[in-house]
## 1
Amino acid sequence: MTARGIRAADDLSQDVVYAGFSLGVPAAQQLAQTREGSKGALFFHACLPTSEFESPWPVDLPVQIHAMNEDPFFVEDGDIDAARELVKSANHAELFLYEGKEHLFTDSSIPTYDADATKLVIKRVLEFLA
């Protein structure tokens, strides 16, 4: 899946903001972290250690990470630790933790959707992109 995401970006200009949701985060993170000209990154429900990729996180590359504070995938799998490390290592990085335990809380097509949290995510993302 990650390789397909990387290949899909071949036709994009380099000056974009990369975004990924859950299993899409590895591709978005690798592209943002290693592709010259990246403008930023948005990670939803996941984050990997920056050491997973061939170069460190660019210190001035903006990033937002959004997840629920008790999401077992985000917390127990170590994503929260990776997110906190990324925030400490970058000049323009934010980790937003929302109350709850749902993994894909921004997906309105499934029962775990949280409309209030998603509204706040959208507000923060739009401010990031402005």
## 2
Amino acid sequence: MPLIDFILHIDDHLVTIVNQFGAGSYLVLCAIIFIETGLVVFPFLPGDSLIFAASAMAANPRYSLNIWLIYIIVALTAIIGDSVNYRIGKWSAAAGEKHNWFNRLINHNNRLAAEKFFERHGPITIVIGRFIPFIRTFVPFISGGSKMHYGKFITYNIIGGLMWTGLFTIIGFFFGNIPVVKEHFSMIVLAIIFVSVVPIAIVALKKKILLKKEFH
């Protein structure tokens, strides 16, 4: 599948983008991050590994990418994306059944997982959710739908955006060009995804255990 190929070989695709677009690569990077964080119907884009790969390339002078510029524009894009997603969630809740077609575009299972995660951890989910694929896209949407005050949301949003971007730019810049990492980049991407999904699996497992206890 093209999407799986893009995720597993994101470093190769990013090299092609940088070679073709030069400084315009920053706009491509921003566009992908914005679509993932800002549009609730696109939760499957690989933001973590994209930041990691771009930061690794910034450590290599041949690509002429600036690590600070990557950090600033990605962090701002992620924060703006979540704010847009919050507004979409608020609109969706207010519109109700009038725009039922929109709700059908949203993955129901991923939405439920994000709602349960949100109920369990509260507003800090906006920060934690940044590091979890799929959950990352749905949390701001649910925050808007739950009528959380925007002042509270934007505070957690900024903290989460700065931390998420900072973690993957630092890791990518300092470790992305180590030979063993470059040779096994696809495995590193899978490991990032796996580690990110672990919290969801733990929550789901705990819920199953609690349900079993209730029925016995």
## 3
Amino acid sequence: MSRRALRLLLSIVMLIAASLGGVLATAGTAQADGCYTWSRTLSAGASGADVTQLQIRVAGYPGSGGVLAIDGAYGPATTAAVKRFQSAYGLAADGIAGPATFSKIYALQDDDCTPAHFSYAELNTCNSTWSGGAVSATTAKSNALRTMWKLEALRHALGDEPIRVTSGFRSHACNDAVGGASGSRHLYGDAADLGAGPHSLCRLAQQARNHGFNGILGPGYPGHNDHTHVDHRSGRFWSAPSCGI
């Protein structure tokens, strides 16, 4: 049995156990995961590294125009994001991250913590080291992981059809080679360019507004008629005039 199939089987068992109201319904989770394992149920008022790990995975569910802070504090915004994540996957939307929620996350992620439908290689075709950008290699790779989880939420909202990433992290050399802007968010590892596929560029730009991206550039914005760009800049800047954005 493959690792993903085993993880899916374990997730189903956990969901059944949780629904029956047994011990697992109040303990965090006894399941070990190759990426990260939560050891307690999390809810409003909790704080710590385990909250941060949860926030990374539900950051694609902040609500329209919202951006979830990855700060390790389980406040109202995190509670709301967890509820949206739970609702999106057919779980009881109580805003409490327990066995059922963690089991769904385990089923969605690979052992390197990337979500099921995206990979580090997909977010970095520039080099293998994540170096040479505007931030350290560690930060660039971490930023890319956060981008991928938001893209996973976007993908799920669009019917779980593929999303094609055409550009992710760039070193200064790679950015210069493609004529990127000097302050491009690609240099920070927190940007992704999306190509048309099952969904039009405008559909991608429009839906991205619901999944925590501060930067959205698409058709009608100079240089963006052949892709939709999403990123995590500090302030909101959305512009895709041809798409009504």
## 4
Amino acid sequence: MAKRAVHRRARKILGEEPVALVWCGVHKPIPTPPKEAHRAAGGGRLKPGHHWLLYVGAVVFFFVVVPVMLMDKLSTGRRDRPNARPSGSGRSRDRDRGQDPTNGVFDGDWDLTAGQLLLHWYGHSPNPKRLVMLARDRVCIATSPRRRLSPTKADDFRIVAEFPLDQARVEGEAGQPRGFATFRLRFADGSWLEVGRLGEPEDADHFLRTVNG
């Protein structure tokens, strides 16, 4: 379960004991919004920030691993060159993916609540983790301003969005496989946002049982 620091901070900023809470994140890349919508929302970032070690790893990969792979492929490419034409299955998969430009992340309307929330998602913090908290009369989303955090010990998160229960509700099935569970934030204007990567299995199980209760 999330540590005392998380619950203590949640209780402080909510002004009451949270009914349920869970760390989560947008579990797929945010689709590319129209330029006008992105600009109107302030042109904020649409991807999470990364630790500097990731950039070091990328440099090593592209300047060391990739050249070695290319040299190996060039040396064997002639022998392994296929004679048959590739099947159309790859193109069919590309078409299938192209039929869902939102990638199942949200309803697709950038002007509605879910779309506007996505446009500001990483503007509040480069960290991909968000804490969704259920209170008696509202749903709150909080985040830490830090690039890195420990979800079990974070004590500096703040609310970045909140919605009364007549404007937002959480939809999610209990008993989903740990590590693959998702839930949706559905808003009164008909828009929805799906999140996953639920942290702390006990918190996730309790959260999903609560929204199903």
